[in-house]
Amino acid sequence: MNYFSLNHKAANVNFEQATINGIAPDKGLYFPEKLIPLEQSFFENIEKMSNTQIAYEVIRQFIATSIPEQELSNIIEETLNFEFPLVKIEEDTYALELFHGPTMAFKDVGARFMARCLRYFNRSKKDEKIKVLVATSGDTGGAVANGFLRVKGVEVIILYPSGKVSTIQEKQLTTLGQNIIALEVDGTFDDCQAMVKQAFLDEDLKELNLTSANSINIARWLPQMFYFFFAYRDLKHLNKNMVFSVPSGNFGNICAGMLAKKLGLPIEFFIASTNINDTVALFLKSGAYQAKPSTATISNAMDVGDPSNFVRIQQLYNNEIETLKKDFSSYSFTDEETKNAMKKIYSTANYISDPHGAVGYLGWQKTKEKFPNSIGVFLETAHPVKFLDTVEETLQTKIEIPQQIKAVIDKKKRSLNIKNYKELKAFLTLG
Ligand SMILES: Cc1ncc(COP(=O)(O)O)c(C=O)c1O
Ligand SMILES: N[C@@H](CCOP(=O)(O)O)C(=O)O
Q1: Reported pTM
Q2: Which atom of ligand 1 lies nearest, measured to the CA of 356?
Q3: Residue to mutate, 30, 103, 133, 139, ligand 2, most ligand atoms under 8 Å from C-beta
Q4: Would the CB of 137 count as within 6 Å of ligand 2?
Q5: Residue 215, CA atoms < 13 Å, CB-side half-sphere
Q6: What three-state secondary structure class fits 85?
Q7: ipTM higher than 0.90?
Q8: H-helix segments, 35-153
Q9: DSSP track, 144-194
């Protein structure tokens, strides 16, 4: 399988090269050249398959010969060594918990998979180093730090917006040291992401072997398909159509679900549920895509004003907005609505949702009238403890701190402050 650039001005490359490049030389995101639907027998027998068997079948066409079969199986086994439970919230509503990995956010899947692919690609390199540049609005940074810690030949540089991530998220991305460096940016997530993209295109930095560990990188993005299949397997016995509501920021997660649908996964509809950063919802109304500066909210990991992966979603639908709307819509919610949803879920189902999951719940609530015979699955993308102050204050309850968080909470933060691209470039060239 090869990948082409969505800007159509760069050479097609295989999985290994696309992973190492991160983004194509013409600034475009890589996209698979063809999508081969999975066999009918796969869906007929899916209840009998384990997570790792499903993941292997789903991803193998995308890896092709870049990684040998046994090695790919090992990568998947190591990546998916935690649970993906579904919790019934209401008769027609389920939460798919994606936070049982080491950093308690869905990013663990993509970050662990990508780190292991790079480890394989670096296996025979001696002194050569790859620098992984990553922008985070909260969770990617921690997951990438954890997933890439001590990976041979890789140095990770994380850019995060100062004062705009939660205390626990900040600890997760600034305290590991070793091959992980955190840069605290005086700006928003979009500023961080723009700087990362600029660095990839900077001729002066060509020698540095830069790549990205955001979902713009196919090795981070593609494994995010896995858990849509797991949820289907676990709910198939209900014999109902399924609608997914995905709390969305950079739109990588929902785009992976939509790719899964193109492979044959029978999902009826997708809802991109956002906070007030509503660039995509506005696009669906007006037909004109207008990126805007992001606004800070209590679901901070979704504070994205120019979602990178929306171009991939458009590509999946041949840039035909009316066709896209048959499978997809987007709704935005305020912090007040989010807090009320958290309270409702807590009082009616005794379930503590984090602000992102609550936005997902709201998206399904808003849409469910149109799907009276279906079940809605909203993704619980992070553990509520990651947003401790907001959750405890909103629900007036105490959350037990899990072991993964205890391990970082008292560690000392280490970060360097930067203000602009010039300072990033100076750091990369001198540091
Ligand atoms: C907890 C949480 N929920 C939702 C999102 C949004 O996911 P995506 O950027 O793939 O749309 C993120 C960050 O990406 C996140 O960390
Ligand atoms: N919400 C993200 C922002 C980056 O998203 P990514 O999936 O493209 O890495 C975060 O938590 O950092």
Answers
A1: 0.96
A2: 3
A3: 139
A4: yes
A5: 30
A6: coil
A7: yes
A8: 40-44, 51-63, 69-79, 107-121, 139-148
A9: HHHHHTT-TTEEEEEEEETT-S-HHHHHHHHS--TTEEEEEESS-HHHHHH
Task: State how far the Cα of 431 lies from the Cα of 427, in Å rounded to an integer.
Answer: 5
Task: Report the interhelical angle of 335-349 vs 355-367 (nearest 10°).
Answer: 90
Which residue's C-alpha comes closest to atom 7 of ligand 2? Answer: 215
Q: Is 252 in the pocket of ligand 1 (CB under 6 A)?
A: yes
CA–CA separation, 217 and 223 (whole Å): 11
Report the DSSP beta bridge partners of residue 417: 184
Atom of ligand 1 nearest to the CA of 248: 11
* Contact (CB, 8 A) for 387 and 166: yes
Domains annotated on the chain, with CATH: 83-105+221-401 (3.40.50.1100)
Determine if ligand 2 sits within 6 Å of the CB of residue 248. Answer: no
Cβ(275) – ligand 2 distance below 6 Å: no
In this structure, which residue's CA is closest to atom 15 in ligand 1?
301
Is the Cβ–Cβ distance between 99 and 380 less than 8 Å?
yes
Total count of residues recorded for the chain: 431
In this prediction, residue 322 has a pLDDT band, given cuts at 50, 70 and 90, of very high
Over residues 141-165, the pLDDT tens digits come to: 999 999 999 998 899 999 999 999 9
